Amino acid sequence: MKKILLLVVIGSLLSVYVQAQDYSDPQNMDVDYNRDADYPGGVNKFIVDLWNTMEFTQEAIDARADGEIMVSFDVEPDSTVSGISIIAGMDYGINEEFTKVLSKMKFKPALAEGNPVKMNMMLNIPIRVGPKSKLKVDDNHSTD
Predict the structure, then answer these.
(1) With bands split at pLDDT 50, 70 and 90, how would you rate the model's confidence at 33?
(2) What is the spatial distance between Cα 16 and Cα 33, in angstroms, rounded to a whole number?
(3) CB atoms within 10 A of CB 90
(4) pTM of the entire structure?
(5) CATH class in words for 32-128
(6) Which residue did the predictor score with more confidence, 76 or 9?
């Protein structure tokens, strides 16, 4: 009797789950990409370009900040970046500098049926700040 009751409960739960999926909604469709969004030259080139562009506070350089930033962002059909969201970040103003630099970078957009489309990307980016890192210049002070 217990086995039959268990089968009835499992069957009921499964039918509710299957009915809850509304595949007629066009927003609930998987996109079949011909090509995923990518940085020209690949991920390693992306990291090098990012590192060469970022500027760090003296505090970050002195602390030799070392870690990773987990970021989610969208690559738009026109190659621009939008919707940047830092999921796990770093201190010393690094998140803000990272976001500023990433927002200016251009990617190859994803293609679906040969047409450029928006695609979300999630990446873990290593950040290594050392004595030779580029120092952020304070715009408020001039060196006279």
Answers:
(1) confident
(2) 31
(3) 18
(4) 0.72
(5) alpha beta
(6) 76
